[in-house]
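Customer escalation, tier 2.

The customer says the design service returned an amino acid string that "doesn't look like it belongs to this structure." They asked us to rerun it and document both sides in this ticket. The original C-alpha cells are below, unchanged.
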C-alpha cells in the first residue's frame, strides 16, 4: 500500500508539528480527566495534513464521558475548560521550555 503522505494534496507533518499536535491533544485529555468530564481519553495524531479533509485536521481526543444527564453550571464550565485546554497546554509548553516550537529531538537532547 502506498504511503498516504505522498499523495499530492497531503503534506507530512514535521516533528515539531507532531509534537505541538500531541501537546495540544494531551492538554484536552488531562483537563477532561482532572475536572471529571471523562473517565478516560484516547488521543489520535495524524502524521499528515490533508488539505481536502473536513474533520479534525491533525489530532483528535476521544473521551469516555462521565454521565451528565442534567448539566450544572460547574459541568458546563468544565466543558469550556476542556475546550480551551489544548491551546493552554501549547502555551505552557512553549513558555516553559527553551525549545519553544522546536522538534522533540531538541528537547530530549538538552535533558
Amino acid at each position: 500500500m502506498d504511503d498516504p503522505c505522498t499523495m499530492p494534496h497531503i503534506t507530512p507533518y514535521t516533528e515539531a508539528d507532531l509534537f505541538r499536535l500531541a501537546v495540544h491533544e494531551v492538554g484536552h485529555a488531562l483537563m477532561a480527566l482532572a475536572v471529571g468530564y471523562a473517565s478516560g481519553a484516547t488521543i489520535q495524531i495524524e502524521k499528515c495534513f490533508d488539505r481536502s479533509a473536513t474533520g479534525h485536521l491533525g489530532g483528535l481526543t476521544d473521551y469516555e464521558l462521565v454521565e451528565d444527564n442534567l448539566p450544572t453550571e460547574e459541568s458546563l464550565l468544565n466543558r469550556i475548560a476542556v475546550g480551551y485546554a489544548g491551546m493552554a497546554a501549547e502555551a505552557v509548553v512553549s513558555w516553559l521550555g527553551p525549545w519553544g516550537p522546536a522538534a522533540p529531538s531538541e528537547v530530549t537532547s538538552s535533558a
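Tier 2 assessment: The sequence is consistent with the input. Residues 102-111 have pLDDT under 50 and may be disordered. Helices lie at 15-34, 73-96, 104-109. Sent an explanation to the customer and offered a walkthrough call.
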